[in-house]
Design brief:
Blueprint: H1 5-19, E1 32-37, H2 52-67, E2 71-73, H3 83-92, H4 96-114, H5 129-143, E3 145-148, E4 153-156, H6 157-167, E5 174-175, H7 185-190, H8 193-201, E6 206-216, E7 221-223, E8 228-229, E9 232-233, E10 241-250, H9 256-262, H10 270-280, E11 282-292, E12 298-303, E13 314-317, H11 324-327, H12 333-343, H13 348-353, E14 361-368, E15 375-380, E16 392-395, H14 401-409, H15 451-465, E17 468-474, E18 479-480, E19 493-496, E20 499-502, E21 535-537, E22 542-544, E23 554-556, H16 565-568, H17 571-574, H18 587-593, E24 596-601, H19 608-622, E25 632-637, E26 641-651, E27 656-658, E28 668-673, H20 687-692, E29 703-705, E30 714-719, H21 730-736, H22 739-748, E31 756-757, H23 763-777, E32 778-779, E33 782-783, H24 792-810, H25 814-830, H26 836-846, H27 851-860, E34 884-891, E35 894-902, H28 907-916, H29 918-924, E36 931-935, E37 939-943
Parallel strand pairs: 1-2, 1-24, 13-15, 24-25, 26-31, 27-29, 34-37
Antiparallel strand pairs: 3-4, 3-5, 6-7, 6-10, 8-9, 10-18, 11-12, 11-14, 11-17, 13-16, 14-15, 19-20, 21-22, 21-23, 26-27, 26-28, 26-30, 32-33, 34-35, 36-37
Length: 944
């Protein structure tokens, strides 16, 4: 009976599907365990072998936990809104829903082929109306909430309205817009409804505001920072500029401190936590106000070094700062405007990363030092960002390297004074940026103080004169929530006199309308501006034709859509109760599952997705909808599986292609080669296939310079990518070697968190292991398992493996388990083990890693049903306790034979047995040894 992986894997995949083997219950008495993979986006390219790495790891844990008696929730779904599908729709005219559906079908086919234990009954898709109706509802909750600093949580907006009506806003502590006018209760109650709505917009957790955004004219949409690479759009490589637009934003900044503190309560890698800490960017310092000469304006600056205020020699504003246009003098206007325009073409990320380029322009304006009343020139420079702090810095060149470089670069030009030194330290070569080891000088009433005492003193004095106060600042900015795209969640709102009105929950979802074109309209409106049925009838509570808009009963709906992260910021909760039509999840389901026990995904989501998810979870907890503060208890970032690219080497004129070993000292250009035209094991190019390949038709008549009659390609490890032609399709591996081989091999490649290269040549060893495993149970005639009692050595091999595999899964060290399986099978093969008492537990041990063969082995052993919930073997120490020792017996240090003796013998007993052994007598030939050295359990050595 041979091992045919094709039949076995198809059989058990069908069995699992028909029997809903992995469906989780929301009412189980078992302890719960929730293991989740990061939401995949279904691209048209399908999966390559790098994608399943994290899924295989999570599946091993999910299967292991089922064996341990847990009720395991291991769901899967699709983050199916997004820019790629929209761009494809623009290019082809196909509806994004159609291509997304086709892509999902392809993903599902591939995922099923690998044998994952997903609970497919809970599948969700963010682009389905029955899903995004709840995303729309969460948006409405955010709109109807404000952040109460006193209670340190989000509360219903009605509680704020009640405070306004009773006492006005003078004593309200809220996260809100800056510079809100103070009003009394009487004034609030006298305001019109429109006036009250405008004020409330300044407090709501999602709000409309004019915001600096990354605008991509070619794509016609706003892009998030992580959608921009090297100043151009990741999708298509189009230029991106900074532009002010009225957008929906979310006050994630309200949660900055809680997001920071929450990191201490979760089991994530330190590198991911540090990424989030840096993104949140907490700074403790002071807010300082500088009056602008000849203007009523003030420049507010946040600084972490208020003790250096007497060292300020100039100020720098971000080019986008709202005061730039107001304070720039006529003489400097042209230069400033040109600089502002140039800066708009660079992303914030690019500006932050570029520490070498120094550029800026003097505005011609001067600010007034709050203590010395000295005139301080005001510059603009792209190293200052509008979105960080106040978008302005007080430049202290003697204490800051960037200010120092800026001052020296513009030294001697109009508006750049000489550097002042306020430290008793030399700054002739560089700024002194330390917070210790100095005394302040040239600093008026701060002279002689250090950093700590100087900071305390200056804040006291700033507060006395009303020019500043102590302040904690965060780099984290409110998140722009509008996208000028078609393929995204529609906002559930319409506008009355320019003010947003939310649509009642019972009328959701507001379904994405049909449009003829997926591009922005001719007058620059988002793609939804092309919709003809996109107006809200407030009497009939339905979407109607735009022609009916009368701004009395029928009003315009929002034309923007939500960003891609909207649906992925709460999806783990939908899995808990995926078919609930009324609520995003029932209270009982949320209470039972609570949050995710293990989350596995790529480190590229360190800030964006993970911060937004934590923000939404905390918000829903505040409002009583979520049971826990943090969504993901433990997070593991899997490393990449890298592709082994192949190259041919062309001459300058492209007429000659040199084999890899012949390129030394030649002027050649490497060209990526499709892996389909090479032998992946021997690295030999199939020249005829290469010539016939449409990508390489230009080389059909080229001369191929061979080595030993073969063209050997070059190989290099790179990121697996279609553009590098180094993608390996998991379907091919499953077809040729089997899904169990793929699963084991991906784990065998190395530690889960590390990047590792794919090498198809190595997969044959894993395939051979599974065949060896099979032959322990079956020969050509069928089952060979006996009921005989195993030997001590057999038990020892098994229990070593139980111990190792259990520890490895608990520690997520899956690669070393595969090695242990191989060792164990080799040992059992040598021991001629076909004993049920060993082979039944062995099938269970293998089951999380290679589930198809494990199911077949379990069935072959005579069991009914699936192996998936059978109890995992337990390690017993007694089987590893040695009762005997095979001693090497040496004569004058040279080992001559071995003898097996009980370990509990004394040295005298051992000596007596050894001396009586005929092999000893043969070695001694009648002599008496001078010395007999015996260390029980270790050595026997006869000397002389």
């Amino acid at each position: 009976m041979k091992y045919f992986h094709e039949k076995i894997e198809a059989k058990w995949q069908q069995y699992w599907a028909e029997n809903q083997t992995f469906a989780a219950s929301n009412t189980s008495d078992k302890p719960k365990y929730y293991v989740l993979d990061m939401f995949p986006y279904p691209s048209g390219a399908g999966l390559h072998v790098g994608h399943p790495l994290g899924y295989i790891a999570s599946d091993i844990v999910a299967r292991y936990k089922r064996h341990q008696g847990f009720n395991v929730l291991h769901p899967q779904g699709y983050d199916s809104f997004g820019l790629p599908a929209e761009q494809y729709a623009i290019q082809t005219g196909q509806h994004p829903e159609k291509t997304t559906r086709e892509n999902i079908a392809r993903y599902r086919e591939q995922l099923d082929k690998i044998g994952f234990s997903f609970d497919w009954s809970r599948e969700v898709r963010t682009s389905n109306p029955d899903y995004y109706k709840h995303t729309q509802w969460i948006f409405i909750q955010l709109f109807n909430s404000w952040y109460n600093i006193s209670s340190d949580k989000a509360e219903d907006i009605s509680t704020l309205v009640a405070i306004f009506a009773a006492e006005g806003n003078a004593n309200v502590k809220a996260v809100c817009d800056d510079n809100i006018a103070v009003f009394s209760a009487a004034e609030w109650n006298a305001f019109s409804s429109d006036q009250q709505q405008k004020i409330l917009l300044q407090y709501r957790l999602t709000y409309l505001a004019e915001t600096e955004v990354n605008w991509c004219p070619a794509l016609g949409t706003v892009l998030a920072n992580d959608e921009i690479v090297n100043g151009v759009s990741e999708r298509g490589g189009h230029p991106v500029i900074r532009k002010k637009m009225t957008q929906w934003s979310m006050r994630i900044s309200a949660y900055a401190e809680r997001l920071l503190q929450g990191l201490e309560t979760i089991d994530w890698s330190e590198s991911i936590k540090e990424s989030q800490r840096n993104w949140i960017g907490k700074s403790v310092g002071a807010m300082v106000s500088f009056n602008v000469n000849n203007h009523e304006a003030k420049i507010d600056v946040f600084t972490t070094r208020p003790d250096t205020i007497f060292g300020v020699t100039f100020m720098t504003l971000a080019p986008e700062h709202e005061l730039v246009a107001q304070i720039t003098t006529p003489e400097q206007k042209a230069a400033v405007e040109a600089y502002v325009e140039a800066t708009a073409k660079r992303s914030e990320r690019e500006r932050m990363a570029d520490v070498k380029t120094i550029s800026g322009v003097f505005t011609g304006a001067y600010a007034e030092h709050p203590f010395t009343k000295e005139a301080i020139p005001v510059w603009i420079g792209d190293y200052v960002l509008a979105g960080y702090g106040t978008g302005a810095v007080m430049a202290v060149p003697c204490g800051d390297e960037r200010d120092y470089a800026f001052a020296n670069f513009f030294n001697g030009t109009n508006g750049m004074p000489a550097i002042k030194n306020i430290f008793n330290r030399d700054i002739s070569e560089a700024a002194f940026g330390e917070k210790s080891g100095f005394e302040l000088v040239n600093s008026d009433f701060l002279n002689g103080l250090d950093y700590k005492s100087g900071t305390k003193k200056i804040i006291e004095e700033l507060e006395k004169i009303g020019a500043g106060n102590a302040k904690v600042n965060y780099r984290l900015r409110d998140a722009v929530f509008s996208r000028q795209r078609y393929w995204g969640e529609p906002f559930p709102l319409y506008y009355v006199k320019g003010l947003p009105q939310m649509i009642d929950k019972k009328h959701l979802p507001i379904v994405l309308p049909e449009v003829e074109k997926y591009l922005p309209t001719e007058d620059g409106q988002p793609p939804l501006g092309n919709a003809t049925f996109w107006a809200w009838d407030t009497e009939n509570n339905t979407v109607v034709n735009n022609d009916l808009i009368d701004n009395t009963k029928v009003f315009a709906l929002e034309l923007n859509t939500m960003p891609g992260w909207a649906g992925s910021s709460w999806y783990w909760m939908r899995y808990m109760d995926a078919h609930n039509a009324e609520d995003f999840a029932s209270e009982s389901a949320l209470k039972y599952w609570e949050n995710v026990d293990l989350y596995i995904g790529g480190s590229e989501h360190a800030t964006g997705h993970l911060l937004y998810s934590r923000f939404w979870n905390k918000f829903l907890k505040d409002r009583g909808f979520a049971p826990t503060e943090e969504p993901f208890k433990k997070l593991i970032n899997q490393g990449m599986i890298l592709g082994m690219s192949a190259f041919v080497y062309r001459s300058e004129d492209s007429k000659t292609l040199y084999s890899k070993g012949l390129i030394k000292d030649k002027n050649v250009h490497p060209i990526h080669v499709d892996l389909a035209v090479i032998n992946d094991i021997t690295n030999e190019l199939d020249i005829e296939k290469f010539k016939a390949h449409p990508l390489y038709s230009d080389y059909a008549n080229a001369e191929f310079v061979l080595e030993d009659g073969k063209y050997i390609v070059g190989r290099e490890v790179e990121k697996m990518s279609k553009s590098k032609y180094n993608v390996v399709n998991p379907d091919d591996i499953c077809n040729e070697y089997g899904a169990d081989t793929l699963r084991l091999y991906e784990m065998f490649l190395g530690p889960l968190e590390q990047a590792k290269p794919w090498n198809t040549a190595g997969i044959t060893g894993v395939s051979g292991f599974l065949k060896k495993l099979w032959r322990l149970y079956f020969d050509d005639n069928g089952l060979i398992v006996t009921e005989a009692e195993p030997t001590a050595e057999m038990y020892k091999s098994l229990h070593k493996t139980i111990k190792k595999v259990t520890e490895d899964i608990e520690n997520f060290s899956f690669n070393t388990s595969v090695s242990q399986f191989m060792i164990c099978v080799n040992e059992l093969q040598q021991l001629k083990c076909n004993h049920r008492a060993i082979l039944e537990p062995l099938a269970l041990l293998v089951s999380p890693y290679a589930p198809h063969i494990a199911e077949e082995l379990w069935s072959g052993l005579g069991h009914e049903g699936s192996i998936s919930t059978v109890a995992f073997p337990k390690f017993e120490e007694k089987y590893l306790i040695e009762s005997e020792k095979e001693y090497p017996v040496s004569f004058n240090g040279k080992m001559r034979f071995t003898i097996k003796l009980p370990l509990d013998l004394t040295a005298a007993q051992i000596e007596a047995i050894v001396m009586a052994d005929e092999r000893t007598q043969a070695q001694l030939q009648g002599r008496t040894p001078n010395k007999v050295i015996i260390v029980p359990g270790k050595i026997i050595n006869l000397v002389g």
